[in-house]
């Protein structure tokens, strides 16, 4: 991870240069964990990325975001009948008062429950930062069961799928 961060410190956010150099234009970092404490080891790095992006975005409001973080905390199940209404109220109130997520202290909100891969993948190719399906690469390190599900979604959306063994 250190080598990735070392290179990322030199990211050139100039959109024209990124496109011309064939470099990475956008990252959607998706992390699914059972326990919110499992996020802790990477939070400082994610916080630095959020701060760097904020520092760049403030004087350049027309530029697209370079990094979007999607964190999913699966330990608390989403009740079909009531959802997570009490928890949602607490987390939204916390975010309004503190300005960050109650679980991670990031600006990014932690989602409760499993990801809806169809909805998430659809957003990747349909928002203002959208790439073509051919430009999307999904890298997975995780359980084989989740990997099979994600691979199926990648095939459906024509995303490139890579899995670490």
UniProtKB/TrEMBL annotation:
<dbReference type="GO" id="GO:0042554">
    <property type="term" value="P:superoxide anion generation"/>
</dbReference>
<dbReference type="InterPro" id="IPR013121">
    <property type="entry name" value="Fe_red_NAD-bd_6"/>
</dbReference>
<keyword id="KW-0560">Oxidoreductase</keyword>
<protein>
    <recommendedName>
        <fullName>Ferric reductase NAD binding domain-containing protein</fullName>
    </recommendedName>
</protein>
<dbReference type="InterPro" id="IPR039261">
    <property type="entry name" value="FNR_nucleotide-bd"/>
</dbReference>
<feature type="domain" description="Ferric reductase NAD binding">
    <location>
        <begin position="16"/>
        <end position="154"/>
    </location>
</feature>
<dbReference type="GO" id="GO:0006952">
    <property type="term" value="P:defense response"/>
</dbReference>
<dbReference type="GO" id="GO:0016175">
    <property type="term" value="F:superoxide-generating NAD(P)H oxidase activity"/>
</dbReference>
<dbReference type="Pfam" id="PF08030">
    <property type="entry name" value="NAD_binding_6"/>
</dbReference>
<dbReference type="GO" id="GO:0043020">
    <property type="term" value="C:NADPH oxidase complex"/>
</dbReference>
<dbReference type="InterPro" id="IPR050369">
    <property type="entry name" value="RBOH/FRE"/>
</dbReference>
